Here is the input.
Amino acid sequence: MNELPGFTVLFLAMLAISTLMRIYLSQRQIRYVAQNRAQVPEAFAGKISLEDHQKAADYTSTKVKFGRLPMFYEIILLLIWTLGGGLAWLDQNIITLGLDPILTGIAVILAYTFISSLLDLPFSLYSTFVIEEKFGFNRTTIKTFITDMLKGSLLGLLIGIPLLYVVLWLMEQAGEQWWIYTWLVISGFSLFMMWVYPTWIAPVFNKFEPLEEGETLDRITRLLKRCGFNSDGIFVIDGSKRSSHGNAYFSGFGKNKRIVFFDTLLKMLSDDELEAVLAHELGHFKKKHIIKGMVISFGMTLIGLAVLAWLMKAEWFYTGLGIEHPSTYMALLLFTLIMPVFTFVFQPLFSIFSRKNEFEADAFAAEQTDAKYLIHALVGLYRENASTLTPDPWYSAFYDSHPPAPVRIAHLNTHA
Here is the structure.
């Protein structure tokens, strides 16, 4: 019996570890939420009804249980694509077209992306039209779902193909330092996309209307002046077209920044609460969380490209993942596929960074507005979005970018 290559063993071991961790964490979440389903946490007593609390518990458990199915499905597909010879088969069939190496690489990556999207489609449909529908959140029609998918695919092709061509060309032609040049290109492209997204890309999917004149706009304008935030406008997005969930955000870069409220959020919150929510978002801006996040992201990308530059020279990297004929595009595709397997254990580190930012943004909001209004707003959002008030601490540490509801409210109470 042939012995498995060392990297194959390492890959399978890391896949097994990450899978067992995900199963264990999901089981903890389901059990913890169920144990706390019968009673509203003391911090929310009188603010959230038992019925709403139990709806959130059931919604959370349903999503976690369903999430196991695509998880196992993705693992099986990953093994088929790699050790099962799927990528090798796809590569050999496209090579017969006689294209040059860069175009061959683009064709292989696009074919893989298309097939994977089709295979994932049933889970997206079930999540949207069964789970979200069951709990009263879905407002997406089949027509909107298909239209969004087609628009996203077309944009992905228009934006992704030129970038992919440049990256593969650099990998082929730029010599030993290709990964540095590629990092510069990707970083510049990311900044450019942040700049154009609010005015050119987001409107493709949603309708943006300027916030109507009145007390709400006046209060927001005064808050922006106090915080020294210059925006390209304050807009309302038709989020209710797809979901009843509420949200608010600001996007863009430099002078091309937009503040966006979901129309569902405007109906959900009072002016005091809305101002507090915006103050929180502005806290991210004032505390330079966006810049810090970009620096970390660019740094991780640089490290990743350096690792890829090392791996693509190693024959064991390809053979260990079922590829007999090495190529730059196959190295890029393999690296993208397996990195989540090796990096899952580090997720809590990113959660810690994100939660620190959320606490700082909450503290900033408490300085600019009354903390009690942000508390009221968050409680309302927890209720309307059916967010569980009792997540398992370990599960939350891996998956939640925001602090658990009781911890966040307790932190805000210290500023009230």
